[in-house]
Design brief:
mainly beta; OB fold (Dihydrolipoamide Acetyltransferase, E2P); 4-stranded antiparallel sheet; 2 helices
């Protein structure tokens, strides 16, 4: 299976190219990308695993064969309308994929970070579960966590801000 960074690079390349459709199969997994106007639709279909629900994303959308229930779609629309952009001087740690956000490695463990926590580029700040794989998300900057923007167990979108960080240079 491809790593998340490799999938992101593929999405960028397909988005910037004139290719309308792209399919990649490897070790029982299949990734299929199709352009729809200004958007790239990505379908990741592992053969033996359960399917991930469809989700709408502004620039890139991930689709599967099942639809997201109407209440979940409404929650996504409300999230997109939330005024996260108010503090432009802060760095945003964003989700590299569609999945479920978890603040700790297990339900009975402490959160990786909380407001006031100091982070460096390789500090794990959360986990995003996608297709039964738990992906550790790193801060990628040095600084202090100012705000956690999503709740534990919440569905997150590709590119959705998860944390606001006051970086070392802004002190």
């Amino acid at each position: 299976m491809l790593k998340v960074q490799e999938i992101r690079e593929l999405i960028k390349l397909i988005d910037q190219s004139s290719i309308d459709e792209f399919t990649f199969e490897n070790e029982g997994s299949k990734i299929k990308m199709k352009k729809h106007g200004q958007q790239v639709a990505v379908a990741v279909q592992p053969q033996p695993l359960a399917q991930v629900p469809q989700a709408a994303v502004p620039a890139v959308s991930v689709q599967q064969t099942e639809n997201v229930p109407a209440p979940a779609q409404e929650a996504v629309k409300q999230q997109e309308a939330a005024p996260v952009e108010e503090q432009t001087d802060l760095h945003k740690i964003v989700s590299p994929m569609v999945g479920t956000f978890y603040q700790s490695p297990s339900p009975d463990a402490d959160n990786y970070v909380k407001p006031g926590s100091q982070v460096n580029p390789d500090t794990v700040v959360c986990i995003v579960e996608a297709m039964k794989l738990f992906n550790e998300i790193e801060a990628e900057v040095s600084g202090e966590i100012v705000e956690v923007l999503v709740k534990d167990g919440q569905l997150v979108e590709y590119g959705q801000p998860l944390f606001l960080v006051k970086t070392q240079g802004e002190r």
